[in-house]
Amino acid sequence: MAKYNKVSRINEPYIEEQNVSHRRQVAKKKRLVRRLFLFALVAITITVFITIYHINQRITHKEMVEQYDQKTEQLVQLQTEEKQLIEEINLLNDEEYLLQLAKTNYFFTEEGEIVFKLPEDNASY
């Protein structure tokens, strides 16, 4: 069975004014909660985007550091190779070195010289 409200409402201006004031306060609180929720949503979104950007920047920085290290290593190797090539060029410009190289590798002899080939130290047996 349904219960009926047996209390009647008083329609006085003071009561109406209080009801309107209460509705305004409830609406104000509702708007405040909505604004705070919107602000929190915007703050969280911005924080997420900044975090993602920061992580991407760290990854990019790490890759660039690795690439820099590789290029530095490559530079050192190329500089070493350049020094060796310059030294070889200087040796090849030396006539005595060329004669010694020709005698050792190509059995070049001057008049009156005899070439003897000696067995290598590493025996294959």
TrEMBL record:
<keyword id="KW-1133">Transmembrane helix</keyword>
<keyword id="KW-0175">Coiled coil</keyword>
<feature type="coiled-coil region">
    <location>
        <begin position="61"/>
        <end position="95"/>
    </location>
</feature>
<keyword id="KW-0812">Transmembrane</keyword>
<dbReference type="InterPro" id="IPR007060">
    <property type="entry name" value="FtsL/DivIC"/>
</dbReference>
<dbReference type="InterPro" id="IPR039076">
    <property type="entry name" value="DivIC"/>
</dbReference>
<feature type="transmembrane region" description="Helical">
    <location>
        <begin position="32"/>
        <end position="55"/>
    </location>
</feature>
<dbReference type="Pfam" id="PF04977">
    <property type="entry name" value="DivIC"/>
</dbReference>
<keyword id="KW-0472">Membrane</keyword>
<protein>
    <submittedName>
        <fullName>Septum formation initiator family protein</fullName>
    </submittedName>
</protein>
